[in-house]
Amino acid sequence: MNQVVSYKTNFIRQIIDKDLARGMHAIVRTRFPPEPNGYLHIGHAKSICLNFTIAADYKGQCHLRFDDTNPVNENMEFIESIKHDVTWLGFQWHGSIRYASDFFEQQYAYAIELIKKGLAYVDELSPNLIREYRGSLTVAGQNSPYRNRSVVDNLKLFSQMRNGDFSEGAACLRAKINMASSFMILRDPVLYRIKFIDHHQTGNKWCIYPMYDFAHCISDALEGITHSLCTMEFQDNRRLYDWILNNITIATHPQQYEFSRLNLEYAITSKRHLNRLVTEQIVEGWDDPRMLTLAGMRRRGYTAASIREFCRRIGITKQENLIEIAALESCIREDLNENAPRAMAVLDAVRVFIINLPDGYERMLSMPCHPNKNEMGTRVVPFTKEIYIDRSDFCEEPRKNYKRLMIGKEVRLRHACTIKAESIEKDDLGQITCIFCSCDVNTFNGDPIDGRKITGVIHWVSFQYALSAEFRLYEPLFTSVNPAASEDIFNTLNPNSMMIRQGFVENSMQYAPISLAYQFEREGYFCADSVHSTANKLVFNRIVGLRQTWLNSNT
Ligand code: ATP
Ligand code: MG
After folding, report:
1. Motif 'KMSKS' region in this chain: where (predicted)?
2. Strand pairing partners for 518?
């Protein structure tokens, strides 16, 4: 999983194959065009993988272009995070970073060209009236009373807009297309609006900003993009994309193709909603390990390879669907099963006292870091007279078929010897405080010599040597399978999305590098939290359990 795997073929690749066979392009050029108004999420990963792997597989180029036409919600933090996330995911854009704002001057010139051709006009209807005049799917729109101004007037007014002579909302530039079109997008769409706000790239140079639809097709064409790939909701916008490029003097005309968005069960992939979770402090930030942002997933312990593999598996179609969260989880599980070193951690500890070992008994045990990868080496773990096991691995009431520890029953301690529970001690509240066991010291290197069958295996850590640690266990942020469909996503917040446990890890974890994922045997895959974990206080995020359990317990 360490390599960027090629996609199987899909309808977009088939189109490209045909275009190339017809000699339409000397080179395939795609782009990933995020708006820097939030962090990237798993849905963006689908688009990134598509654009960058197509460019790579066809020996073409993929640009990273910020669609920065609405400075109100954009900022440098988002730009930096997006650059970092794309790189982390394993991709490198061709050439320098690009911005739609690099082309503001050219876009302005193209707007002038449209005005001169009688194809754009300055409208002074208020935004509300513009909406009203637009009509609806069943009612044709109405022409604005300003629609038939002369070219000379329009040129003068548009230049006044640029000069800041109008206030926000007092005027805008609209394309003159058809107020009765069955495509709402073609009912004289707004091309420029006034915003007196500084822009992160252009400062206070502009007070008019192009709309996405106007800037996008022109930026694509100026960059020589051949295939402009976007999601299905832009299907109708393609009419405007083509209308603009057909009506200005520009050398190339990229083709837009749409594919379905990634929608994931129990998750939201909309920056607007993610932003709300952050600003209303439902989560710690954009990189909260429960967020399906790339920053959150990275902090949680997802590997870039597992996300690329997930994107490869879901494929590219025009079909809208909801992908099972299990599909994402199996990608990370498969990766970590193969690559994560093993260690032991006890999340809900109870003390075990081994009565037949001498006081102060210690034995250093060498354990493989991976059960079938010798090259990952071994680690040394002390075994002592007192250990911790997980509370759930002991059952007070005798139970048939119970594989773990019970009074009178013998189990194997993982990588150590067998123990048998003899008696327990409880506190005043009836909680077990200690389990007294005997052990068979002849079983460190194999089965009991008398042929006793030991079926259960439990994990443990040394009472004296273990390091205390916090474990954060996660469930999806939402209880609804499709939270975006609920009236308010906040009605479906999962109160158990983060559960905190205080426990212990084996002492070899003292120097565990942050961001390296481990399998804590029988507990799942974990990764030290890059924000909260310190040498004095280890904090681990559970990336994913060993098996899918969350859904089973909820359905
Ligand atoms: P959001 O709704 O989260 O704001 P967006 O589409 O407005 O998403 P952009 O930053 O404009 O976000 O998206 C950049 C690119 O990523 C676009 O080409 C967009 O189509 C694509 N993209 C965004 N969300 C998804 C998704 N869920 N699945 C696939 N592609 C997506
Ligand atoms: Mg967008």
Report:
1. 268-272
2. 526
